[in-house]
Amino acid sequence: MKVKSLFIIAFVALAGVACNKSFLDINTNPNTLPTASPNYVFTNAINTATSVSNMLGANEIGSYWSGQWTQSNGYIINTAQFAYNFTNGDFNYWDNYYDNLQDFQFVIDNADSYNQKFLKGPSKVMKAMLFQQLVDMYGNIPFTDALKGSKVLAPKFDDQKAVYEALIPLLDEAIADLKANPFASAFTGSDLIFRGNTTKWAQFANSLKMRILIRQSRVTGKESYIKTEINKIVTEGSGFITGEDVGLGGSTFYLATAGKLNPIYDRWGYDANGAKRALNNYPRLTKFLIDNLKANGDTLRMKRIAYANGGENGSNPGVSTRAEIAANYAGTPFGASSGYLPANTTSLGPSLLVKGEFNRPFILMTAAEVQFLLAEAKQRYSDVTLPGTAQSYFEAGITQSFRTLGVKGSTGTEFKGSGIKNYDWAASSNKLEAIAYQKWIALTNFSGLEAWSEYRRTDLPVTPQSVQVVDNKRPLRFYYPNTESGSNGENVKAQGNIDALATRLFWDVD
Predict the structure, then answer these.
(1) How far is 365 from 362, CA to CA, in rounded Å?
(2) pLDDT level of residue 200 (50, 70, 90 thresholds)
(3) What is the per-residue pLDDT for 34?
(4) pLDDT at residue 53, as a whole number
(5) InterPro entries in the record, alphabetically (predicted)?
(6) From the candidate CATH numbers 3.10.450.540, 1.25.40.390, 3.20.20.300, 3.40.1010.10, the one assigned to the domain spanning 36-54+93-235+476-510
(7) To the nearest 5 percent, what fractions of the chain are helix, strand and coil?
(8) pLDDT band for position 26 (50/70/90)?
(9) 444 closest CA partner among 286, 254, 225, 273
């Protein structure tokens, strides 16, 4: 009985201390903090946004499907990319985009309690950009039910038009937060894009608004809404990104260390020791792009977009192996599977890759794109209160493209009065076509997803079909990934039968 009593006493004592939640809690790792400070999450989220599984990958496929890049014949042809033989197991950017969005939402939800309110505005800007890109890739997506963790395990999908419209007030909120909460000086290093400059974040927000609004410009019944929102941007007063690009990282962030290089440099350029990556031989500039640049006398930009045949001279970084004359630049037909080897075709040029320059910024949005958005807005809606003319914005877009590409000795102003269609405003009878054509050139190497979206919206320029495809059908979107079908199947099925070569997004009207 005495032994039995001891067992009872021991059991009662154990039960008592077990009421303390922390006792024997096997789900708590004593070596990790229970949560993370929003500034650390924000910095990591910004960096993650540009990874191969996020923007870098989406920009790569967009560069192909917009007719800017193709594949060299040093590899077996990628039929998913160039014969359009892809399924819901290909091009899954969905999972990583939503994972990235969850981090930005964490910052938004926790910034107040950590006295880091200055991070809410930038996080909302990034949230809007990522959701816009998700719509442009997939159409209807979870939005109002998204980013709620275990509270909503099977989020419903929102109509893509509604998501686009919701992004404008989200960016309004972001600007209000930015104006009300200047960065604390001790935390400016957490901001890998603008180093705590809230004015530039507000300008970025307005520039994204213009992208979202102009993307809808061909949708019936949207004109009044678009004009009203553009006028609101002008009234708000922060302006737009101009004279510089929106870039992440740069010399103070990327390092010559494995895993810490600029992701573009790391993928298609060189490793931390300067050894050329195998994938340096993969992307080629298309014959359509190179031939058009030559035909229009646009060789200064051509020599920045591409290296001459044979690629970069490893002993003279930033300079082609062969003489940089027009005859030594040869584009590859889109989807060609033989006859175009790395040695006799143009590769990604010094505007993107130079040996040793591992710490260039990763560009999220170019100033040229913003100017062409303003040009189209003024050309379509002459009564909006934007202060410039369609022509002045168009010409500024060309100048900004020359700057971003690093062209020396020219700003592109020589095309004014040249009489060249789609270069000289006066000589271009179809002004919207000229804007679309110049934007397509300016986006080359920097914003492939945006180039593909604009190609789908405008059908310009008229690029050749892949030689792997017998008809003229082209990808209009991605399939919902099989991972989403597995975890949220009923809501995926509710979107109907998706045909990636026939199911258009709402802004792709023809």
Answers:
(1) 9
(2) very high
(3) 58
(4) 87
(5) SusD-like_2, TPR-like_helical_dom_sf
(6) 1.25.40.390
(7) 50, 5, 45
(8) very low
(9) 286
